[in-house]
Design a protein that fits this description.
- The structure is a single chain.
- This protein is mostly helical and 133 residues long.
- The chain has 6 helices and 2 strands; from the N terminus they run ααααααββ.
- Strands 1-2 form a two-stranded antiparallel sheet.
- A hairpin with a 4-residue loop joins strand 1 and strand 2.
- This is DUF4878 domain-containing protein.
Length: 133
């Protein structure tokens, strides 16, 4: 066999083997980015579906929120807000905990009017939630 024929056959085999590895890597190696987005969306949907904090009307949500403030319970009061993208109320819990440390939760409860709140209907949990102050 000549040198050129040997190079041709060795090169052809290398190309076929490389193409096979590429095919396996693309089609059978799990892509973590595909799963992480899907899993995060599913987790958010599940968390929203079991989130029952809120009322069947904006007024009921407002009254529940005010009652939680008057009870000096920042964790409960935070749950009446729309959760963040991580299905968490940490931002609101921390903010309300600072107000509790300063003995300002009851003052906040006394001064708030329903018109001060941005209240929306959460389609996933089927309750009214506070979007912001």
């Amino acid at each position: 066999m000549s040198k050129h024929a040997l190079f041709f056959w060795v090169g052809s085999v290398l190309i076929i083997v490389s193409a096979g590895f590429f095919y396996l890597a693309v089609n059978y190696y799990p892509n973590e980015y595909d799963y992480s987005g899907e899993e995060a969306a599913n987790e958010y949907q599940e968390a929203a579906a079991i989130d029952t904090y809120g009322g069947s009307t904006p007024e009921e949500t407002f009254n529940l929120f005010i009652a939680a403030l008057r009870a000096d319970d920042p964790a409960l009061a935070a749950k009446y807000f729309v959760p963040d993208k991580n299905s968490s109320w940490d931002k609101w819990t921390e903010t309300l905990a600072i107000l509790k440390e300063n003995n300002a939760l009851r003052e906040m409860a006394d001064s708030l009017e329903i018109s001060d709140l941005d209240i929306i209907y959460d389609q996933r949990s089927k309750v009214w939630k506070i979007k912001g102050l």
